[in-house]
Design goal:
11 helices; 329 residues; two-stranded antiparallel ribbon; 10% strand; single chain; two-stranded antiparallel sheet; mainly alpha
Length: 329
C-alpha cells in the first residue's frame, strides 16, 4: 500500500506549482522592468519608485510572463511525453505510461499554437520598445521597407551584412508590421546595439525547436485522437524532444538578455556603469566554477531520469513477483 495517498501527492504538486508560478511572477516583473522601465524617477543617479502599479505592470511584463508560463508548461509536456515514449520503445512501460504519453502529447498540441501567438505579440511589443533587439534578431542592417525574413545565415558585423542568407522576401515586414511594405529600422540606426551573432542564432534555435514541437505534437495527437497507437518513428521523435523545452527556453533567455545589451536598465543604465571591479582571473574562475557545478547537476539529473525511465513498471514487477510465488506453490 502506498505510504502517501494520491490526494496528498496532488496537493503537494499543486502547492509547488503555485509557489513556483508566484516566484516567476515577481522575478519576471523585475526582469521586464529592466527591459521596459517605467514608473520611476532618477535623482542623483539613483532610481526611486514613483508608481508601483506602473512598475509591476510595465509594457513588456504581460507578454514575457505569459510567454514564459506557457514555455514552462510545454517543457513539462514534452518531458512527460518523451520519457513515456522512451519507456514504450524499450518495452518497459506499464498501464499508466500510455495515459502519461497521451496527456503530454495533447497538452503540447494545444499549447504550441498558443505559444506561437504569444511569441508574435511579444515580438510586436519588443519592436515597439526595443527596436535594436529586433534588428539583431532579424539581422536587418539597413533601415528598409519590405524587409526580408532571414531563415538562415551568418551575421558579419564587420561588413554589416548576413553571409549565405536564406531569405523570404518581405516576410519580416509582414510579420512585424502586418504589411509587406512596412519599414523596419536597421542596426545602422543604433550605434550601441547588441552583439548580433548570439542573438540571431539563439532566436533561430528557439523558433526551430518550436516548429519541431508543433509538427510532432500535432502528428502524434492526430494518431491518438483517432484511437491509433503511435508508430515507432513518432515515439522516437518524442524521445528526441524530451529535453527540447529546456533548450528552447535557454535560447529564448539568451535572446532576451544578450539582446538588451549594452543596457542593464534599457535606455537608462548601461552595464559598463555597474560592472564590478574584478580581475579577469576572478571572473573566469567564477564563471568556470558555476559552469562546472551546473553541468554536474544537469548530468546527474539527466542520468537519474534515464535510469528511472529504463526501470520496469511497478505493475510488471508485481506480476513477475506473483508469477514467481505461483510457480513455487
Amino acid at each position: 500500500k502506498d505510504r502517501v495517498s494520491n490526494r496528498m501527492h496532488l496537493t503537494a504538486f499543486a502547492l509547488v506549482a503555485v509557489a513556483t508560478t508566484l516566484s516567476a511572477f515577481w522575478i519576471l516583473i523585475l526582469n521586464s522592468w529592466m527591459q521596459t522601465p517605467q514608473g520611476h524617477e532618477i535623482v542623483d543617479g539613483k532610481f526611486y519608485a514613483v508608481d508601483w502599479f506602473a512598475i509591476i505592470f510595465n509594457p513588456s511584463f504581460p507578454y514575457r510572463f505569459t510567454h514564459m508560463l506557457v514555455a514552462s508548461l510545454l517543457t513539462t509536456a514534452f518531458l512527460l511525453a518523451g520519457l513515456s515514449a522512451s519507456r514504450m520503445l524499450r518495452n518497459v512501460h506499464g498501464p499508466g505510461t500510455e495515459r502519461v504519453l497521451r496527456t503530454g502529447v495533447l497538452l503540447a498540441a494545444a499549447l504550441t499554437p498558443l505559444q506561437v501567438v504569444l511569441g508574435d505579440l511579444h515580438g510586436l511589443n519588443t519592436l515597439e520598445h526595443q527596436p535594436a533587439k529586433i534588428a539583431a534578431i532579424e539581422g536587418i542592417w539597413q533601415t528598409q521597407a519590405g524587409a526580408p525574413l532571414t531563415l538562415l545565415g551568418i551575421p558579419d558585423e564587420e561588413q554589416g551584412r548576413t553571409r549565405f542568407a536564406v531569405e523570404i522576401p518581405r516576410a519580416a515586414s509582414l510579420i512585424l508590421t502586418h504589411s509587406g511594405d512596412g519599414v523596419l529600422q536597421g542596426l545602422e540606426e543604433f550605434p550601441e546595439h547588441p552583439p548580433v551573432l548570439p542573438v540571431f542564432v539563439s532566436f533561430r534555435v528557439m523558433v526551430g525547436i518550436g516548429v519541431a514541437m508543433l509538427f510532432v505534437s500535432w502528428l502524434c495527437a492526430a494518431y491518438l485522437l483517432r484511437g491509433r497507437d503511435l508508430p515507432p518513428v513518432a515515439l522516437r521523435a518524442l524521445a528526441w524532444l524530451t529535453f527540447s523545452g529546456w533548450v528552447a527556453v535557454l535560447a529564448g533567455w539568451y535572446v532576451t538578455e544578450i539582446g538588451r545589451q549594452p543596457w542593464i536598465v534599457y535606455g537608462e543604465l548601461a552595464v559598463a556603469d555597474v560592472v564590478a571591479d574584478h580581475s579577469q582571473g576572478v571572473m573566469r574562475g567564477t564563471l568556470l566554477a558555476y559552469a562546472l557545478l551546473y553541468a554536474g547537476l544537469l548530468a546527474a539529473y539527466v542520468a537519474t531520469l534515464r535510469h528511472l525511465s529504463a526501470k520496469p513498471a511497478a505493475s510488471l514487477q508485481m506480476r513477475a513477483a506473483e508469477g514467481a510465488l505461483g510457480g513455487g506453490r
